[in-house]
Amino acid sequence: xxxxxxxxxxxxxxxxxxxxxxxxxxxxxxxxxxxxxxxxxxxxxxxxxxxxxxxxxxxxxxxxxxxxxxxxxxxxxxxxxxxxxxxxxxxxxxxxxxxxxxxxxxxxxxxxxxxxxxxxxxxxxxxxxxxxxxxxxxxxxxxxxxxxxxxxxxxxxxxxxxxxxxxxxxxxxxxxxxxxxxxxxxxxxxxxxxxxxxxxxxxxxxxxxxxxxxxxxxxxxxxxxxxxxxxxxxxxxxxxxxxxxxxxxxxxxxxxxxxxxxxxxxxxxxxxxxxxxxxxxxxxxxxxxxxxxxxxxxxxxxxxxxxxxxxxxxxxxxxxxxxxxxxxxxxxxxxxxxxxxxxxxxxxxxxxxxxxxxxxxxxxxxxxxxxxxxxxxxxxxxxxxxxxxxxxxxxxxxxxxxxxxxxxxxxxxxxxxxxxxxxx
Amino acid sequence: xxxxxxxxxxxxxxxxxxxxxxxxxxxxxxxxxxxxxxxxxxxxxxxxxxxxxxxxxxxxxxxxxxxxxxxxxxxxxxxxxxxxxxxxxxxxxxxxxxxxxxxxxxxxxxxxxxxxxxxxxxxxxxxxxxxxxxxxxxxxxxxxxxxxxxxxxxxxxxxxxxxxxxxxxxxxxxxxxxxxxxxxxxxxxxxxxxxxxxxxxxxxxxxxxxxxxxxxxxxx
Lengths: 424, 220
Hints:
The structure holds two protein chains of two kinds.
Chain A: E1 7-14, H1 26-40, E2 52-56, H2 59-62, H3 68-74, E3 82-85, H4 91-104, E4 110-118, H5 124-131, H6 137-141, H7 147-161, H8 166-180, H9 187-190, H10 198-203, E5 206-208, E6 211-212, E7 221-230, H11 231-237, E8 244-253, H12 265-271, H13 282-295, H14 302-305, E9 308-310, H15 316-325, H16 334-339, H17 356-359, H18 364-379, H19 383-386, E10 399-406, E11 411-419
Parallel strand pairs in A: 2-3, 2-4, 9-10
Antiparallel strand pairs in A: 1-7, 1-8, 4-7, 5-6, 8-11, 10-11
Helix pairs in contact in A: 1-3, 4-18, 8-15
Chain B: E1 35-41, E2 48-53, H1 66-73, E3 78-81, E4 88-89, E5 107-110, E6 114-123, E7 136-143, E8 150-154, E9 167-172, E10 185-189, H2 200-217
């Protein structure tokens, strides 16, 4: 396959992420975020758009099928082709992947990706049950399972096998929420608004052992837009404001039921017997291998070659499991990697400076886009303008990783973004 | 010329003639369609919201998976086995997962009702339908002779006593209460199993569970 055409991101913004305190319809949020995007990028015109990918997970939250038709119509884009991508928690990453493919193939030049979820339309426990409809309802949901429970069952075994502790997970829960305190759009900043200690995480209520409330992500109302485009267009509209190239993409899949990961033939062929079990994220590893290869990142030095990462911290435990699946640490080194605070600001690979799902929020269809947007800000020098201070800026970041993750690891995408030449 | 029948095609009775009915509908189960139940206005009279109630019944046709559901009614765990590679599936897969087996149709087999805990968690929060039985142990159990793990609850145990690799057995809800769904059975510790002495981690889990017990008492 010849890969000649480069695909770029020239702009991106989110609405405020919130739960219960942000009254705004989906089309109102889309118009607001598009306004902010046009302010960031004055030469970008709605007329330039030649395709739109919509990113939305659950129609249950809105009781509205094809809600993207409401947004598309409202933005005045009637006549422009569009479709919606749905892929669980990896909806945002998958939508970005679809836009990348369209532009790469020459099927589109300017392709915004618009994602949202309105999870505060229902109670938290009802919302958890709606999301768990993505588990195999016949076997897993009916026995009382929701995602925090499935994840906890995997995380407990993983914790033991990797000589990790509850406190190690709590460190990550603390990190991302505290990072979010520098981000005015983050739900943690807007709603609870406090700095946490490891003890605060340890003392928060049990969700499913070893996970407590502050080890878990937030349910959110919110919307995000990323402008994906060809390099020619990026040079035309973003030479002053800066842009990134999408140099590596990887998408992979795993079983819907975590219990089927004991001996899946495809994984046994690729990685040997007993992997991933219920503990590791094989789809993340596989997607990272693909993305790294395309971007020229070496597996063993990946954490040295990447400056900043925005990853899918649905749970503090899963962020740690993802470090391993991305090749940043192994069974012998992961505990030390976490305890050395390698992923804190100032560490070797700051991860989720924007707050992640635990701090910024997790409006499913918008989440992967939020991660890409935060990474884009880091790589184009926009953090001082978008965050409250430079505390959460990674100085001179030029290579970023974006990760989006679904199910119990059922679909995972990874992207490598690079600052374009003269792009910051 | 007659075409040779493909033995890997699933066949089900058609027309189905669904005649043997057992109803256990709760009188509270109502289908009302769209129904608004209230509206709310902000103090400054600039924002409006309303609550919409919308419910519906779903038909779950188990089709070729029906032997699994019929087995549950009978107190049997019915899984499947690939005649080619020998992998045994529970939950059942009606076609083999091994690409070399080319979607080989699997065979129904009755499974052992004993197994071991592969991994587990102690749930302190759950979905709306499961809040009142918190805290509970949710485990992934590998039944004896099966390739995959099945998720279900372990009961008749103090949540902090659950452990990796513990032997469990299947226990059935009374026959007249079975509905042909996975909740017709749960796991309990095997007869010979005794909880290990309390240790720091078990004390920790017990402490985390205490407020959950209190919270559940406040639920209506």
